[in-house]
């Protein structure tokens, strides 16, 4: 394997600076509460309203400000996302089995009680992140779902409010960044009680804040600056490959785009076209910065190496532009979401197709998939037994407990049985 384009060095140092900055902000908000939230909101977003909550009447009527075409597309998208989430929910079955005569074991999928959903809004108004967060929470049966999103031009964009209303959010707060994650996790704003789980994507500050509040509250996953990987062979269309790389690079100067290909000719064709695709978009500045800092082109020897390298990168999105692309669904292991064949593209998944767009970044795809209805459900277990089954368990339990020196554990077993185990 060799690279025709390398990423720029120096990203790791940057991340550790962000981490310490976020730690200071979270500690300050925990100590000083609302006053600190207001101070950071003023500093980073120039925003300090009387009340961060958007009035419900404004949320309900936001659709009046939107044109019908956009509203139709948003309704289509929400139905696609809801439909897929409902199908996924049906795969999560409660279970009750008798694994020994008289011993019944079971599990149930129980929704978390309250969720705080972060909808990014620094650079773009990410309307779709509203329903990607809220819909699966609602399908899971979460009782309370609040949304936080940064204001732009002194308000939350009406399309985000319309999407929040369609998706079924209980409240929307115009608050962004680390201060929003802290407000939802710590419950420091009047009327906004602490939630059990903070979910949603965001920039490097937001994702680091989620990582740091984890434990105190649950999180869905680490969904930071967008990444696109494309695996391709000599059948791929260099135009589509270059176009789709730039398609995601416009997200953030920290976004990554990686082409991994068995064809040096394709790699060179894509590189030759890339500048033209960057120049074709008005978001060129961000996309070009991302490409220069985080763009990579890797040429591999064969398909086995293609799969191995792609799995090592563990990228958020992977587009598959190879012969018989469906084969890759079962051959690849580490990715957030797969886009199979040239007729689909990451933007479909971002907005309208149905699978969730909140997906793992920074190699988190090695250990987690993306957001989905299952992330909002706790799989809890239970057991009950007949007296005969209890005696059988008691004997084994007491023997093992005594071998560990756990005498009180052993006693809880032996008092339930006539087993001849000596309690020391
Ligand atoms: N992985 C995913 O699933 C996924 C999905 C959608 C979007 N994204 C990513 O979400 C991100 C959105 O980023 P964004 O910046 O546009 O919006 P954002 O809402 O995530 O962040 C904006 C907030 O960042 C805070 N901020 C800005 N500079 C700061 C600083 N120096 N210190 C502390 N806080 C600061 C501000 O408070 C602001 O409200 C992009 O990186 C995009 O790629 C990821
Ligand atoms: N590609 C993003 C996930 O990394 C999601 C998104 C929403 N809108 C546009 N893109
Ligand atoms: Zn995107």
Automatic annotation (TrEMBL):
Pathway: Amino-acid biosynthesis; L-histidine biosynthesis; L-histidine from 5-phospho-alpha-D-ribose 1-diphosphate: step 9/9
Keywords: Amino-acid biosynthesis, Histidine biosynthesis, Metal-binding, NAD, Oxidoreductase, Zinc
Binding site for substrate: 226, 248, 251, 317, 350, 404, 409
Gene3D superfamilies assigned to the protein according to its UniProt record, in alphabetical order: 1.20.5.1300, Nitrogenase molybdenum iron protein domain (3.40.50.1980)
A Pfam family annotated for this UniProt entry: Histidinol_dh
SUPFAM superfamilies for the chain: ALDH-like
Binding residues annotated for NAD(+), in chain numbering: 118, 179, 203
Ranges in coiled-coil conformation: none
InterPro entries, alphabetized: Ald_DH/histidinol_DH (IPR016161), Histidinol_DH_CS (IPR001692), Histidinol_DH_monofunct (IPR022695), Hstdl_DH (IPR012131)
Catalytic residues in the record: 316-317
GO cellular component terms given for this protein: cytosol
Cofactor mode of binding and number, as noted: Binds 1 zinc ion per subunit.
Cofactor(s) annotated in UniProt: Zn(2+)
S-adenosyl-L-methionine as UniProt keyword: no
Residues annotated for Zn(2+) binding in this entry: 248, 251, 350, 409
GO process annotations (BP): L-histidine biosynthetic process
MF terms (GO), sorted A to Z: histidinol dehydrogenase activity; metal ion binding; NAD binding
Family per record: Belongs to the histidinol dehydrogenase family.
Function, as annotated: Catalyzes the sequential NAD-dependent oxidations of L-histidinol to L-histidinaldehyde and then to L-histidine.
Protein name: Histidinol dehydrogenase
